[in-house]
């Protein structure tokens, strides 16, 4: 994608994995990314909400993994922490006066969410389904 191309909104329907609790939380994360992408409004509040909601989601997902014995738990948790660290950096950033989050940041958040949900979370959900979760 050329550096000036517009980033697409996230469609949660494209990231449904089949575990209702996790899918519902991913839907919220997609909505928060879309608010971040739109910019404006209470941008600081949106970033704060993304931070808090993603941490809540990670805690719940990690609890599923821990209870059902997902062997990739430590690696998965490390990825979650990496995301939280980046969102914390975003919280500390001086908010742009035009109400737009820098494109590189948006691209990172979007790519992380899509790649993580579609690959890492998908593997977890398949494992959980095999355990009747
Ligand atoms: Fe995850
Ligand atoms: Fe997730």
In short:
This protein is 70% helix and 0% strand.
> Beta-strand level of the residues, as a percent range?
under 5%
Q: What is the helix tally?
A: 4
- Based on CA atoms alone, the radius of gyration comes out at 15 Å
Number of strands: 0
Q: List the helices and strands in order.
A: HHHH
Mean pLDDT: 94
Number of domains: 1
What keywords describe this structure?
4 helices, Four Helix Bundle (Hemerythrin (Met), subunit A), mainly alpha, 133 residues, binds fe (ii) ion, single chain
Task: Describe this entry's structure for a reader.
The protein is mainly α and 133 residues long. It has one domain (20-130): Hemerythrin-like (Four Helix Bundle (Hemerythrin (Met), subunit A), Up-down Bundle). The protein contains 4 helices and no strands. The protein has helices at 20-38, 43-68, 73-92, 103-130. Helix 1 packs antiparallel against helix 4 (103-130). The longest helix is centred in the C-terminal third of the chain and has 28 residues, at 103-130. The chain is elongated. It starts with 19 loop residues before the first helix and ends with a helix. The mean pLDDT is 94. It binds fe (ii) ion (FE2) (2 copies). One fe (ii) ion binds at residues 61, 76, 80, 116, 120-121.
């Amino acid at each position: 994608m050329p550096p000036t191309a517009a980033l697409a909104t996230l469609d949660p329907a494209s990231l449904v994995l089949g575990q209702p609790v996790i899918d519902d939380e991913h839907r919220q994360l997609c909505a928060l990314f879309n608010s971040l992408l739109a910019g404006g409004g209470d941008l600081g509040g949106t970033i704060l909400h993304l931070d808090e909601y993603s941490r809540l989601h990670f805690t719940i997902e990690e609890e599923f993994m821990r209870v059902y014995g997902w062997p990739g738990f430590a690696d998965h948790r490390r990825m979650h922490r990496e995301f939280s660290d980046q969102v914390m950096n975003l919280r500390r950033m001086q908010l742009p006066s035009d109400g737009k989050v820098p494109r590189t940041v948006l691209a990172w958040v979007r790519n992380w969410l899509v790649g993580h949900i579609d690959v890492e979370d998908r593997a977890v959900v398949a494992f959980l389904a095999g355990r009747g979760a």
